[in-house]
Structure formats: C-alpha cells, structure tokens
Amino acid sequence: MEFVLSICIGISLSAACGFRIFVPLMVMSIASLSGHLTLSSGFVWIGTYPALICFAVATIAEICAYYIPWLDNLLDLIATPSAIVAGIIVTASCVTTMSPFLRWTLAIIAGGGIAGMVQALTTLVRGASTATTGGAANPVVSTAEAGGSLVLSSLGIVFPVIAALFVMSAIIFTIKKLHKKFTRKKTRLAHP
Predict the structure, then answer these.
(1) How many CA atoms lie within 13 A of 185 on its CB side?
(2) DSSP string of 77-109, one letter each residue
(3) Distance separating alpha carbons of residues 105 and 125, to the nearest angstrom
(4) How far apart are CA 134 and CA 143, in angstroms?
(5) Whose CA is closest to 142, among 163, 125, 156?
(6) Model confidence band, residue 125 (pLDDT cutoffs 50, 70, 90)
(7) Summary mean pLDDT of the chain
(8) Which of 20, 36, 160, 43 lies closest to 92, judged by CA?
(9) What is the C-alpha R_g of the chain?
(10) What are the pLDDT digits (tens) for 141-181?
C-alpha cells in the first residue's frame, strides 16, 4: 500500500509543479520536516530547514513574478522545461520502495510527463488570456495557478489517492476535449 501511496503523492506533486515549480517543493519540505512525508534516500535534503527557506523564497519570487504583465509570458517559456525537471525530481523523491531504475523510469515518464502537460495547458490558458484581454486577466490566471498548485500539493500529501485520481481524471477529460475539438476542426476543413 505504501508503494501505491508514494506513486499517488508523486503524481499529484508533479502535476502541481506544472502550475508553479516551487510550491510543491516547499510543501514537500514542510511535510517532511513535520514527519508527514518520507523522502527516498538521496532526497532527504528537501526536508531540511535551509531547503525550506530556499523553497519559500523561490516560491514568493515565482508567484510575484507572474503578476508582472510582460514577465509572466516570458516565464512560461522558462517554466516548461523547469516544470518537467521539477516533476521528475518530486516523483523520484516520493517513491521510496522501488529499485532506482524503476523509480527514475516512473519519475521521467509519469512525473515529467504530467508536469509538462499541466504546464503546457497553463501556457495555452495564459496565451489565450493575453490574446483576448490584452493581459488584463493574467493576474486572475496567475492567482488560479498558484492556488491550484498549493491546493493540489496539499491534497497530494493529505489525500494522495484522491488527488491522483483528480489529476488523472482532469488529464483524460482535457485530452478528450482537445481530441474532439481537433477532430471537429479537421472534419470541417476536409468537408467545406
């Protein structure tokens, strides 16, 4: 059971990395320091006070930077590869009862993949917000992303199975919607 829970925690936290990179790491650090999260060997540094201070400062800087109109779109370019790396790290650090080969394979495929998908979707939402409102709605989008990251990170620690099911359901729903949209568009183009 611990194995399944650690995977659910990793998936939830990696999805949260797609919204904000440092919020899940800060939540992990707090959870580890308070004894609510056991980190795999090699990642115990995440649960130290110096790491917590660094993650807290980075979280505040990241959240504040997304409220600067021109900087938010620029950060999305940088955040995509960073979110993937963070998703890999948080997943690898949560899975404790697995061989290193399987742990890193899971971390790269599931953790990095989910973080990348969520980040790509947030980039699309921010781009649509910028295009339709001239950036006026971007602070609302930024607030929703930061809140989503915090809630999903917290749920991933407290209710990991529910959080992982929510993430997987949201991904499946989004993929179905996008597939339906592109299929409809492709049909319209083929039959004018």
Answers:
(1) 6
(2) HHHHHHHHHHHHHHHHHH--SS-HHHHHHHIII
(3) 30
(4) 17
(5) 125
(6) confident
(7) 90
(8) 43
(9) 17
(10) 999 999 999 999 999 999 989 998 988 898 888 888 877 87
Both tokens assigned to 111: 């953790």
Nearest one of 1, 2, 9 to 161, comparing CA atoms: 9
CB 86 within 8 A of CB 24: yes
190 C-beta neighbours (distance < 10 Å), count: 7
pLDDT tens for 16-53 read: 999 999 999 999 999 999 999 999 989 999 999 999 99
Here the tokens at position 71 are 């900087």
Q: Taking the complete model, does pTM exceed 0.70, yes or no? A: yes
- Distance between CA atoms of 62 and 41, rounded to whole angstroms? 28
- Evaluate whether 16 touches 10 at the Cβ level (below 8 Å): no
> Is 12 within 8 Å of 153 (Cβ atoms)?
yes
* Token pair of 50 as six digits: 């110096």
